Amino acid sequence: MYRVAVIKGDGIGVEVTEAAMRVIKAVTNKIEFVEFEGGFEVFKECGAPIREEDLEEIKEMDAVLFGATSTPFDVPNYKSLILTLRKELNLYANLRIIPDLWGDREIYIVRENSEGLYSGEYEVNDGRVVDFRVITREGAEKIARFAIELAKDRNFKEITFVHKANVLRGDRFFRKIVLNLAEREGIKVNEKIIDSFTIELVRNPWKHRIILSENLFGDILSDLASIHAKSIGVIPSGNYGEEIALFEPIHGSAPDIAGKGIANPIGAILSGAMLLDYLGLDGWVIWNAVKNYVKKGNLTPDLGGSAMTPDVVNGVISEIDDQEIDP
Length: 327
Ligand code: 48Y
What we know:
By secondary structure, the protein is α/β, with parallel strands linked by helices. Helix content is about 40%, strand content about 20%. It contains eleven helices and twelve strands. Helix 7 (about 195-205) packs parallel to helix 8. The longest helix has 17 residues, at about 135-155. (1R,2S)-1-hydroxybutane-1,2,4-tricarboxylic acid (48Y) binds near residues 82, 83, 219 and 250. (1R,2S)-1-hydroxybutane-1,2,4-tricarboxylic acid binds next to helix 4.
């Protein structure tokens, strides 16, 4: 039995996480879900986006399934729940899979998840604010290894490394580490400068199958690449550490459509598939079921359909029931 923490969060985070849990339960009975609260409401009560004792309990679990939260940026001292979890659980690698659900290809975006401009280190002086963009040897090596192992695992001979080494010292350091490791491991590195690469990612995305970058560049590139999946609502992600991993759709809490029952659950459902893969269970069953369903089923309004969230969940589950899997 595996123990998975569930944090549904705010807005559509609640609906899509429940959808993902239903789909996971249709594939396996080897998971026990334990729910935790987190976010702004918890912060108002205890001054942190998640309770200390809950965090300690979560650290002992096998994985985390996360929905979405909204982070107000005008509340002094509020710290984002997801950034807190990434830091506290040491989730150094963020893998986002941009799927072509109507075809048979994916783009894997590997984002460094704990350093760069998200270091949380800053200096405020009279009239001057400095955010530190931290790149460490250890952090760069770990994320480079993650991308290279992924390339080998998926039988890709090269990775695309996106940086701004022409301007930033940190990226010059990062670049050397990536090139050295890739050479030792027999993987080719296709180097791109972040600014001109954005044009390429819009025009000619599918030739870059594994894209590696630092934290903020990876954040922006993954939102941009989502246009190729037709909706940001279908993109799953995994945040991996050495002890535990957290899975979440990359979309936000979408307060404008929350509670209307029209949120696209596919990003959360595929995050569930990544979670199963991480635990050594049958994530591929969910991927197949989603792909079969989107080819013929009614989709949510973000994809031009008129389906409600539960319609998509039911449709995906009936595709699962049509597949032969070991219980
Ligand atoms: O997961 C994401 O890509 C989100 O954009 C978060 C980020 O910047 O990494 C947002 C963080 C937040 O607002 O709580």
